[in-house]
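job 3f2a | input accepted
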Amino acid sequence: MEFEQIIYAVDDGVATITLNRPEAMNAVTSVMNAEIIAAFDAADADDDVRAVIMTGTGRAFCAGADLSRGAETFDYDSQGTGAGRVDEVDWSDERVRDGGGLVSLRIYESLKPVIGAINGAAVGQGITMTLPMDVRIAADGARFGFVFARRGIVPEACSTWFLPRIVGTPQALRWLYSGRVFGATEALQGGLVESVQPREELMPTAIAIAREIADLTAPISVALIRQMVWRGLGADHPMEAHRMESRGVYALGQTADAREGVNSFLEKRPPSFSGRPSAEMPAFFPWWEERGYD
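job 3f2a | predicted structure (294 res):
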C-alpha cells in the first residue's frame, strides 16, 4: 500500500505506521490525517495483522500541526476549508470537526491493539493522537507538549476526554493549562508513557510487546477486550461491564478458538487461533450502537 506522507508495512503479523515527513519533523497535514485513517482501515481489514505500532521517521515523532500557513494556520474558514464565520456557522457541519479528532476516533475504534513508539518530539496532535493508543513508550530524548493554550486555541483530538482518564485530572490540567514542553522522565512519572527506552531499543521494545499479543492470543478475544475496556470508561455502573463480559464469555465459549485455547493449555503447546475479526465478530458487536453511538 502506497502513501505520500506515511509508510505502512506489515511484517509477521505486526503493522507499522511510520509518519514520514522528516524534513518537517513529521508535522501533521490533512493528507497525513487521511492516510493514518486509511492505514487503520487496512489494518482492521487484514486478519493477518495482530497489532499496530506507530512511530516517526527522523528525529521527531510528530511536531503537531504544520504551521507553514503562519498566523492563519487554525483559521480554516480563511483557507476555504471551513464552514463560515463563527457568528453564522452551522455547528453540525462536518467541516468544523478537527482532523486530529477524526484520527483519534479512528484509533479508538481499532480492532487491533495499538502501540505508540514515540521516538522524539511529540507536541500538539503529535501527542494527543497517541492517547487512544493502548501502550505508549518513549525514547529517552523524547519531548512532549500539550501546547494549545500557548497557541491561542484549545486541545483537540478528543484529548480532553482521553488525557484525564490516562493521567488523572490534576496532572492533565497542569499540562494543558501551562502548555509547556517537558521531557520523557516527567512523562513517565506522570503516567503518560509506560516506559522510557534508549532510542536504539525503542522499536525492539515495541515489537516485543506486539509479538506477545500476536503469538499467544486469540484475535477476536483481543478485539473485544480492547473495545470493552475503552468503551467501558464512560459506563455509569459496573453492571454494564457485567452484561458485556457475560455476552462475550457466552458467545466465544462456543467457538473453535475457545476450544483451542483450552486444548493448547492442557497439551502444553503454543495455541493456533483461527478467528477472523474482519468477518467473525459475535452478533452483539458493536454493542455501543444500542446507545446511539456510531
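job 3f2a | The chain has a mean pLDDT of 92.
job 3f2a | closed
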